[in-house]
């Protein structure tokens, strides 16, 4: 879909579908394709690119995000930049696509890499987690056996039966560091038992065990494993009430509304004493590339989205095993 704004600015937006290798399953269901929305902003012969993943958990749809992006035609024509974007758009997937496209455009117009313009250190390669989808203990054990060479595995859990799942995974990957993600599926009845099972398996981090808005119990329980907020944290405004319940936060650009807020949020979270995790949805390298700047501050890096696809973009990020490299300018930034 293309809309010409004036001779200087053109906004193009489209929905893309990328098949997943097999399927990807979490506590909320399974999917076989990644549905992304791409925004392209062109000025003076240069084009900036951004990609987002609408998430139904937050009431987003691909069509709704596309409409939100196209509603930004006139502000972009008037010279809207990433610095003022947050004043007229709420945090979420649509703003992420625009923010990242504007960052990319700014870099291309200046002839410099975006991290230089943002006064950030040049990114270096990082080791990313690799995700094991939710399934029966037997299915998860088989998937883990194929990935046991990877240094960090992220295990999707789903509530009842998780003790058996994590034990089966650990048996197949005795040397890997394990983090788990319950995606809000645990309850007060199984919370302590599941945490004990994770402790017995040597798990390093548990992500979002209880539903957002119903996680007060995390402030009272005994734990030796770091607890990470995902659905309970979005942007800087949501940090203040989390300090008693969580030890870490998962920064995802689709939640923060782009790289600009994500960088500010990472700085603010570290100042409050939180560990940083950078996460992703299942998407192409165009979604991962901006998050590589957050990865430089992160204790846990989870940017394996392209590894879960049947294929990635032709100019995608370089993955060498679990090591992911910063983007070339041809992709982004």
Plain-language structure description:
It is built from 11 helices and 15 strands. It folds into 2 domains: 2-114, 2-Layer Sandwich (Enolase-like, domain 1), CATH 3.30.390; 126-324, Alpha-Beta Barrel (TIM Barrel), CATH 3.20.20. Helix 6 (137-147) runs parallel beside helix 7. A hairpin with a 2-residue loop joins strand 3 (29-43) and strand 4. The strands form 3 sheets. The protein has an 8-stranded parallel beta sheet with strand order 6-7-8-9-10-11-12-13. Strands 1-2-3-4 form a 4-stranded antiparallel beta sheet. It has 333 residues and is of the alpha/beta class. It has helices at residues 62-70, 73-77, 82-85, 93-110, 114-117, 137-147, 162-172, 191-200, 253-256, 259-271, 285-295; strands spanning 2-4, 9-26, 29-43, 46-52, 126-127, 130-132, 152-156, 177-181, 205-207, 226-229, 248-251, 275-278, 300-301, 319-320, 323-324. It is globular and about 60 Å long.
